């Protein structure tokens, strides 16, 4: 694991950046899955809810997640350079709130009441997550108030048969409820519509 101290690019005064509200409003339209990133080992554990999770490469298997440098998880990653990514089911929104710190619990207290296991690295892994990825930290790239954490995936497991929790427009949704909100409820829950006619720009369409 290495923490590369790269300086952020220096912007000249002539560069005009978008205002923060416009940036946030645009990002709210990106629907995405929700994960709980578990960090630590034994009793020295914490974790956080994240949507900034993405696959980086399949050859070799690498993923990335962005972690706030003010969070307890960022500190724990310095002590334990490994983490778990737990992709949440639709039923687990209370769990997502807990790992986002919304009920005031911290550290190991966030883990109480769920069933946990370990795979290769020793990081706690949620037993009934939709899918889990057990990772070692390959690199941490500090950028502004976050670090981009690149994970080397040591083990992965899927438990299909449930719908994912989706975050969109500042709230959690099931796939079906997101479709109903925009009148796209035609497709059965959890199925992909292959023959969706091209529309002009719908509110949950990021492809235009
Ligand atoms: C839907 C959602 C997505 C989030 N995504 C991220 C993320 O990608 N990276 C991050 O550092 N924090 C993210 N957060 C915030 C953390 O979950 C939250 O700050 C957490 O409490 C940090 O842990 P700590 O209280 O132990 O410091 C997200 C919160 C929510 C509700």
Outline:
The protein is of the alpha+beta class and 208 residues long. Helix content is 15%, strand content 35%.
Would you give an account of this structure?
This protein has one domain (31-181): Electron Transport, Fmn-binding Protein, Chain A (Pnp Oxidase, Chain A, Roll). 15% of the residues lie in helices and 35% in strands. It has helices spanning 20-28, 72-79, 93-99, 175-181; strands spanning 32-33, 35-41, 44-50, 53-58, 61-68, 82-87, 116-117, 125-126, 131-143, 146-158, 166-168, 171-173. Flavin mononucleotide (FMN) binds next to β3, β5 and α2. Flavin mononucleotide binds at residues 34, 46, 48-52, 66-68, 71-73, 99-101, 106, 167.
Task: Compile the SSE list and pairings.
Blueprint: H1 20-28, E1 32-33, E2 35-41, E3 44-50, E4 53-58, E5 61-68, H2 72-79, E6 82-87, H3 93-99, E7 116-117, E8 125-126, E9 131-143, E10 146-158, E11 166-168, E12 171-173, H4 175-181
Antiparallel strand pairs: 1-11, 2-3, 2-6, 4-5, 5-10, 6-9, 7-8, 9-10, 11-12
Bound molecules: flavin mononucleotide (FMN).
Flavin mononucleotide (FMN) binds next to strand 3, strand 5 and helix 2.
List the keywords.
208 residues, alpha+beta, Pnp Oxidase, Chain A, three-stranded antiparallel β-sheet, 4 helices, 15% helix, 35% strand, disordered C terminus, binds flavin mononucleotide
Number of helices: 4
Bound molecules: flavin mononucleotide
Element order: H for helix, E for strand: HEEEEEHEHEEEEEEH
Order of strands across the widest beta sheet?
Answer: 3-2-6-9-10-5-4
Mean pLDDT: 85
Number of strands: 12
Oligomer: single chain
How many domains in all?
1
Radius of gyration: 18 Å
Question: What portion of residues belong to β-strands?
Answer: 25-35%
């Amino acid at each position: 694991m290495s923490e590369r101290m790269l300086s952020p690019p220096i912007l000249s005064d002539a560069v005009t950046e978008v205002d923060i509200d416009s940036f946030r409003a645009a990002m709210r339209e990106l629907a995405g899955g929700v994960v709980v990133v578990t960090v630590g080992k034994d009793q020295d554990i914490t974790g956080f809810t994240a949507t900034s999770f993405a696959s980086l490469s399949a050859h070799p298997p690498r993923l990335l997640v962005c972690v706030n440098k003010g969070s307890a998880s960022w500190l724990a990653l310095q002590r334990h350079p490994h983490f778990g990514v737990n992709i949440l089911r639709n039923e687990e929104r209370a769990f997502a709130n807990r790992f986002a710190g919304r009920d005031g619990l911290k550290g190991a207290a966030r883990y109480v009441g769920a069933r946990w296991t370990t795979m290769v690295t020793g990081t706690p892994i949620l037993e009934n997550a939709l899918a889990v990825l057990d990772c070692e930290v390959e690199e941490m790239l500090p950028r502004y108030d976050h670090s981009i954490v690149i994970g080397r995936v040591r083990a992965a497991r899927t438990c299909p048969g449930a719908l994912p929790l989706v975050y969109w427009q500042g709230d959690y949704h099931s796939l079906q409820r997101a479709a109903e909100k925009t009148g796209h409820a035609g497709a059965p829950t959890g199925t992909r519509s292959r023959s969706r006619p091209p529309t002009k720009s719908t509110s949950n369409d990021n492809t235009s």
